[in-house]
Amino acid sequence: MISYHTFSCSVFAEVEKELDKALKTITFEPTLAICFISVKFPITDVMHLFERQNINLFGSSTSGEILFNKEKDIISEGGAVFIITDIDKNYYKLDLLNREEDSFDFGKRVGKEVNTYFREASILVGGSGLTLDGQMFVEGIKEIAGENVTMYGGLAGDDAKFERTFVFTENKISENGAVVLAFDKRHVKMNGLATSGWIGLGAELKVTRSEGNIVYEIDNQPALEVYKNYLNVSEDDLPSIGLEYPLMLKKEGMEEGPLRAVLNVDKENKTLIFAGSVPQGSTISFSTSPGFEIMETTRQKIIDFHEQNPQVDLLILFSCVARHMALGPLISSEIKLASIKWNCPVIGYFTYGEIGNNINNVCDFYNQTFTLAAISID
After folding, report:
1. Where are the beta strands (DSSP E) in 196-253?
2. DSSP letters of 16-56?
3. CA pair distance 251, 272, nearest whole angstrom
4. pLDDT digits (tens, 9 = 90+) for 284-331
5. Confidence bin at 372 (pLDDT 50/70/90)
6. What one-character-per-residue DSSP string does 302-328 give?
7. Which of 55, 84, 137, 358 has the CB geometry, 3.0–4.6 Å to 50, for a possible disulfide?
8. Which residues 6+ apart lie within 8 Å of 205 measured at CB?
């Protein structure tokens, strides 16, 4: 069983105070911490606090922070949340890699690195960089680690500014890379769920020119102009409005196709950069949240997953920032249900993209999902 201590902070001055307090009161030897934090904080100063205590740190910048435990339920904007654990250092390997190649080859490099850690590993991963193609990154890892690799994570946020995002350890930080926490499957169990609930909106369109996660033309028109006209918005409304109305990729036999949210805009060339690949020739539609139906869908998925996995030590949540925008304060209900069901903390953040295994145990990249990783030690 994993021992843990959680805390949250609204300003940097509180971090050192809360960490010192924790180290004086906990009854276990701290080894590994997880931190989800706003870019408003001096992140490198936070890192140094944990490095001085010889505590490994898996961290990401956010667009909102989540911490639900027995004492309090926190959904903050501009804050920081932490969990300190006693997971045996022989059971995991933590590293940070900077990206110098395209997203697919970067994923392959991450996969090769993970393969050197353990014979069989499950992966917790955070990605930074507004040009990182989340889909190709995941596909690259799967190319090396296998189609059914167990992997959960998300793309870092920056308070919906879409300027600079970061991932970090206690001694490394990158605004264009990945933080990777690999667990030895012989000792640490990790699985989870990913659910969306978004629905298609309006007519089907065709991507007539794209390259990876950059879309140049939709229905032979500049992609930026299509977005502006279809949603009746201005250039200044993007990319933030694109989180609420992502593209849904239509796939034969699938009622709910993969979603792609806009992360960046090239106004000069009238192109859009998405969180994941949008293949040329694909059929798409805009999509939107059906409101309360999302919560009911997620609620049932949580109940079903709990019935199959009743014993969990801690939960890590990667929830799309668009869910927060769509549901507002009501989003706390789906998080609270998970915390109550397992009687353990839920720590997480609002992301620019989510990574997780689907119902067929195939890892994929998403937008607009509630992606929950469950971790335990027998």
Report:
1. 199-211, 214-218, 221-222, 247-249
2. HHHHHHHHHH-SS---EEEEEE-TTS-HHHHHHHHHHTT-E
3. 21
4. 988 777 666 777 788 889 999 999 999 999 999 999 988 888 778 888
5. very high
6. HHHHHHH----SEEEEEEEHHHHHHHG
7. 55
8. 218, 219, 226, 283, 284, 285
Q: Is 163 helix (H, G, I), strand (E, B) or coil?
A: coil
Helix, strand and coil content of the chain, in percent to the nearest 5, comes to 30, 35, 35
Contacts of 138 (CB under 8 A, 6+ apart): 107, 151, 355, 363, 364, 365
The residue behind tokens 């596909």 is 139
231-249 per-position pLDDT tens digit: 888 877 777 776 778 888 8
What CA–CA distances, in Å, run from 308 to 47, 66, 261? 37, 25, 31
For 49-118, give the secondary structure using H, E and C.
Answer: HHHHCCCEEEEEECCCEEEECCCCEEEECCCEEEEEECCCHHHEEEEEEECCCCHHHHHHHHHHHHHCCC
Tell me the pLDDT tens digit for each residue of 75-122.
999 999 999 999 999 999 999 999 999 999 999 999 999 999 998 999
CB 343 within 8 A of CB 79: no
Pairing state between β 121-127 and 346-351: unpaired
* Pair of tokens at residue 283: 């059929």
pLDDT value of position 256: 57
By the 8 A CB rule, do 347 and 36 touch?
yes
Q: Which two tokens stand for residue 172?
A: 């490394």
Residue with tokens 């929830």: 319
Give the start-to-end residue ranges of the domains of the chain: 4-195+293-377, 200-288
Question: In 150-187, at which residue ranges do the beta strands (DSSP E only) sit?
Answer: 151-155, 167-168, 173-174, 177-184
Q: 55 near 28, Cβ under 8 Å?
A: no
- d(CA 154, CA 211) in angstroms, rounded, equals 22
- Structure confidence at residue 221 (pLDDT): 93
